[in-house]
Amino acid sequence: MIRVLIADDHTILRQGLVSILEKDDECVVVGEAANGLEALEKAQELSPQIAVIDISMPELNGMEVVKRIHQKLPQCKVLVLTMHEEEEYVIHMVRAGASGYLLKDSASEELIQAVKALASGKSYFSQYAAQVLANQYSQPEEWSDPYKNLTKREREVFHLVVDGKTTKEIARVLDISVKTAENHRGKVLEKLGVSNSAELVKYAAQHKLLL
Fold first, then answer.
1. From the CA atom positions of the chain, what is the Rg in Å?
2. Among the residues of 73-149, which ranges form H helices?
3. Number of structural domains, the chain?
4. Considering the domain boundaries, does residue 103 fall inside one?
5. In the prediction, which pLDDT does 140 show?
6. Could you tell me the residue range of the domain that residue 160 belongs to?
7. Residue range 150-174: average pLDDT?
8. 82 φ, ψ to 5°?
9. Share of the chain above pLDDT 70, in %
10. How many angstroms separate the CA atoms of 61 and 69, rounded?
11. DSSP code of 124?
């Protein structure tokens, strides 16, 4: 049986995914998560073979969830299931460690096909995502990575600021001091050439990074 973890903050959608997967004799859903932090906890606790992860989730966005699962649980393959079809999301998720990328308007049969592909050690990308990756491979200079000058920690802070977190809240989420959080925030603003949180949110919107 293919052990699957599902992480999506929309209960009805999550329940629908469980129903689809468990109708297949080769799949069993071992856990569900309603936010990013819960997804990480469940992944470490349940050791699923496949984690189906949404991009836009509270507490911790899907991009950071994918990165951390890829780093801490390399045996767990991540399938991103999202409404975002912009090329920036596809490329960032693949760079974060995703093995598959599927849009939420895909047919249920394609979801099962993708899960089975990842479980067998292969990758699975929807037709659109595969075309984005092919274009990126053939013309890498045409896409500029807005994260290229940010460290891993700075990217975490970037998304938390965009999510509206205060410096104290960022410090609590990342388990660091307020002073350290403020330093990271300052470096993010400096590297991206913006002067405050409002401009940072605008930057995120312009680069399609509002997860």
1. 17
2. 87-96, 108-119, 127-138
3. 2
4. yes
5. 56
6. 152-207
7. 88
8. -145, 165
9. 92
10. 13
11. E
